[in-house]
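[Q] Does anyone have a clean structure-token version of this?
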Amino acid sequence: MSEQESEHHNPTHALTFPDLSGAVPTSAEARAKRRITALEEELQMMQQEKGTKQRKTTYYVSQGRAIRRMVVLYTSLEDLIAENDRRYKEQLEENTTEQDHLQRGYITLAQVVPWLHPKLSELDIDDCEDMLKKLKRGADAARGDNTSTLKDLVAAWVNQDFRPSCLLKADDKHSRGFVHDTCGKLLCPSEWDWSDPRVKAGIRDRTSEYIVSENSWPLFLYENYTVDSNNLEEGLFKSKILVQAFKATFTSPSLAKEADGDGDGADILENNRHARCALNQAKVKTCVRFALSGVTSWHTIDGDFDYEMFWNNIVDFFEDVPGPVAQCRVTRLLEWWTRKIFGRNHREDLTPDVVSKMSVTALAEQRKAIEDAAFDSD
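[A] Here you go.
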């Protein structure tokens, strides 16, 4: 077979290179299809990443809502983390009161958001900052929701229980505080008598003799809004308005109407842990004080009153006790709160002997006896 005939029976397709780039010629249609496919895959990947990022954002924000309620009301998360790092690095036995406050806050944070501590070690610095930013967004949003809700509810509770001549308006904070006689009584430091015209005038005029600061326990903290000057701990943190605010914040606003009796026990599981955590962090007391005041927006300072120091004073009452006797009183107070919010629980008294006398067990035994009698008769 000649060379020409061989080429005819075994055709080959030689590639042509039109220029020095070495590009193989392709059709415009094929290139467009491949580009479209690549773009679609890129878009799908971006949508998946966006969905993952959005889910993370939603999760972090929702988890952050618990922080201002149960961990710290003012302190930044970065300060809590920095204090824990400092302690681990320096291993010092002596620390300042402020440092102790920060560390207690970090320990509570690790308990309330248990995944956070290991997460801080896993993420790089940028992802960690992004996570903390979203947690704070949720935390601050929850605080705003709580203060807004209590602003309305506290007005209704004061009007209902005290029947003031000048009713509080839910949307007006300017008429509250010491300019309002009932709010003034509730905000008045427990060591003074609001019914004394000199006290009332001195507080309203902000004289040096009557300085209202975080160094005094306001009357609204006390049971029946009365105080025994010889025993300032008696009735402290047992007021009706605190119970109402606690229920509105941590359970449901509708349950806040039932503040006189014990709770119904519906949420009895782990009740003491929840009550202890929330009480120790002083969220309710601080927010009620803000709701009674005439301050229109959230501030740390109200005149001579420092809300952050007030918060710390309440935390110290529960956690920095002088000895075992005081600790017993704190424990009884927390048990009182457990009953008021969650009701009583006696499951530990349901011994096998007690259960054996109850109707479920009795019915099971009766059914078995009937079956046995029928079997014997056959």
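[Q] Thanks! Anything notable?
[A] The first strand starts at residue 301 and ends at 302.
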